Amino acid sequence: MRSLIPGDWYILFTCTDCKTRQIMFPDLSEGRADLRATYKVECVKCRHVGKYESEELERYQHPPNADPMPIYGIAFFAMLSLLRSFGWLRHPGRISSVRRL
Question: Exposed, middle or buried by CB within 10 Å (0-12, 13-18, 19+), for 97?
Answer without folding.
Answer: exposed
